[in-house]
């Protein structure tokens, strides 16, 4: 079974669906409510498991009563949790999401991991195990750096979910093999040519998602292109980017090396298909059953 280590944020998400988002001072009745584990690395881990891979999530949740909600969700969806936070007093990171019924657009308020300092486990080599790819989201900086350094030492490709700029990236980017950028991601010192700047730092592969617009890719050794995602009717976009990153990391793990220009069109097309599958389903986990059927033919 193909293994992926996913390192980063795990939150407790309260997700409510509404016909229309409320205006300031207004109250609305939700059509449904769910509590699930969230966060970039966490949603990516659920995607890896749904596609038939072995997903190991290295994160910091702790022992607060709220954490049980996230633990149960991860266990139900086949994610192996490695929790380095033992604090049982402070609550975990919490997100509140509102998803609009007619088009699946979401609004999120999140506390993330601000103020939570955690150290990597002593046996990080053991945690990495047989993982053939590592995905980091840049949250919990010490975890991200230690995992990337361990992976680099062992020749395991490192994928960065580059959703927004974080100070840790100064040290983390030189350890990255595939920088998967959001449309908004920019380096502060080179905002107008960030992709080229990432290659100048030594990163072999840079990709950039743009919602329903084509995903762009470029290789440091030469080659670039775009891959158009499927046209679908979106019913729920919450976590779709995270799912895309999980599918990409899983594809790279199956490849077993840093992808080349010949590999990227197929890898990105597969990630696009999985993300499209996610947005076609209402609810945070409703897409997983369909992904499992798809994944059984990908990684038996």
Automatic annotation (TrEMBL):
Any single Pfam family the record assigns to this protein: PfkB
Protein name (Swiss-Prot/TrEMBL): PfkB family carbohydrate kinase
Gene3D superfamilies: 3.40.1190.20
Residue stretches making up the Carbohydrate kinase PfkB domain: 1-286
Keyword tRNA processing on entry: no
Coiled-coil residue windows: none
Organism: Saccharopolyspora rosea
Keyword terms, alphabetized: Kinase, Transferase
GO MF annotation: an example: kinase activity
């Amino acid at each position: 079974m193909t293994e992926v280590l996913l390192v980063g944020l795990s939150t407790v998400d309260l997700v409510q669906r509404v016909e229309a988002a409320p205006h300031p001072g207004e109250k609305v009745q939700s059509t449904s409510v769910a509590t699930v584990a969230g966060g970039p690395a966490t949603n990516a881990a659920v995607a890896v498991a749904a596609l038939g891979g072995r997903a190991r999530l290295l994160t910091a949740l702790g022992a607060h009563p709220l954490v049980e909600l996230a633990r149960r969700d991860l266990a139900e969806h086949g994610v192996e949790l490695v929790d380095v936070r033992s604090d049982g007093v402070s609550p975990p990171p919490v997100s509140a999401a509102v998803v609009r019924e007619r088009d699946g657009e979401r609004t999120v308020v999140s506390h993330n991991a601000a103020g939570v300092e955690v150290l990597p486990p002593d046996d990080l080599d053991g945690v990495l195990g047989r993982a053939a790819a590592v995905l980091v989201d840049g949250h919990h900086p010490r975890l991200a750096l230690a995992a990337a350094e361990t992976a680099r030492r062992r020749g395991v490709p490192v994928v960065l979910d580059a959703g927004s700029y974080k100070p840790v990236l100064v040290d983390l980017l030189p350890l990255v093999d595939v920088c998967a950028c959001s449309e908004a991601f920019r380096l502060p010192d080179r905002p107008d040519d960030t992709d080229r700047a990432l290659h100048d730092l030594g990163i072999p592969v840079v990709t950039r998602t743009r919602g329903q617009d084509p995903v762009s890719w470029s290789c440091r050794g030469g080659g670039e292109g775009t891959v158009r995602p499927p046209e679908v009717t979106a019913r729920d976009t919450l976590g779709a980017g995270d799912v895309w990153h999980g599918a990409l990391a899983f594809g790279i793990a199956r490849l077993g090396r840093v992808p080349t220009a010949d590999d990227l069109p197929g890898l990105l097309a597969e990630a696009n298909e999985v993300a499209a599958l996610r947005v076609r389903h209402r609810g945070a986990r409703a897409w997983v059953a369909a992904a499992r059927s798809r994944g059984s033919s990908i990684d038996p």
